[in-house]
Automatic annotation (TrEMBL):
Annotated protein name in UniProt: EamA domain-containing protein
Lineage per the UniProt record: Bacteria, Pseudomonadati, Pseudomonadota, Gammaproteobacteria, Chromatiales
Species this chain originates from: Halothiobacillus diazotrophicus
Major location category of this protein: membrane
Membrane topology (UniProt): Multi-pass membrane protein
Compartment annotation: Membrane
PANTHER family: AMINO-ACID METABOLITE EFFLUX PUMP-RELATED (PTHR32322:SF9), INNER MEMBRANE TRANSPORTER (PTHR32322)
Keywords: Membrane, Transmembrane, Transmembrane helix
Residues annotated as domain EamA: 131-264
Amino acid sequence: MVAFAANSLLCREALASGGIGAASFTLIRLVSGATFLWLLVGLRQRTWAVGGDWLSALALFGYAAGFSFAYVGLSAGTGALLLFGAVQITMIAHGLRAGERLTAWQAVGALAAFAGLVWLVLPGVQAPPLLGAVLMIGAGIAWGVYSLRGRGGASPIRATTGNFVRSVPLALGLFAVVHVSGLQEPMAAQGVFYAVASGALASGLGYALWYAVLPALRATTAATLQLSVPIIAALGGVLLLGEALTLRFGVATLAVLGGLLVFILSRLAPHDFGQAFEFSKSGDIRDESP
C-alpha cells in the first residue's frame, strides 16, 4: 500500500518541482515499469513471453496519462482519493450493469462514496482544480476498466508486463504530440529519477509484491487494505511535500472511504446486512490498485 501511495507522492513532487513534464513522466514511468516487470518475469519464470492485450494496454495508458496530467494541479492526497474512489465506483457500476443487486447497506455505502467525490469537486475556495479533478476521475475509470479486463487471468504479472510493454508506443505518441505542438517540457535529472522510481519501484515492484501476497489474503481483506492508500498518500503529502489538509478533504475522505468500508464489510456479515454483493470467484481485487 505504501508503494501504491508512493506513486502519487513521486508524481506530485516531480511535477510540482518543475523537474519534468507530465508527458515525459508518463513515458519514463511506463518504460521503467515495462523494463522492470519484463526482467522480473524472465528471471523468475524462465520465459520472456508476456501476456496482455491492446485494449487493456490502452486502458493502462489512459490511467497513466490522466494520472500524470492531473497531478499538475492536485495535491497528493486529493489525487489519490479521487483516483481510488473512481476505481471502486467504476467496478461497482460494472457489477450493477451486469445484473448484480445491492443490499440496503451496500447502496448506502456506494451513495456515500459517490457523494464524497461530488462534495470534493464542488466549486468553492477549497475545491481542487476542476480540470485536474476531471482528469484524475478519468484515470480512475480507466484503471477500473483495466482491472475488470484483467480479473481471473492465469498469470497476472505476465499480463501486466505485456500491457506495460504495449503502452510504451502509446506514451511515445503522446510525448511526440506534446513536443510537436510546441510545448516545452523540462526534463531535469531529479524529475527523471522520480519517474523511474515511480515506474520501476512504486509500480513494478509494488505490483510484484501485491501479487505475491494476494494468495494469502481474502478478497475482502485485500479490498479493506486498499482503503489505506489515500490516507497514506495524504499523510505523505503533509509530511514530505508540505501540503495542507483541508476540512473539505477531511469530510470527503470520511464519506468516500467510510462508504466503501461499509460496502465491503456488508459482504462479511450477510445475516446483518443482507445478501452480499458478489464479483466473480476468480478474484475481484486482483488488479485493482494503481
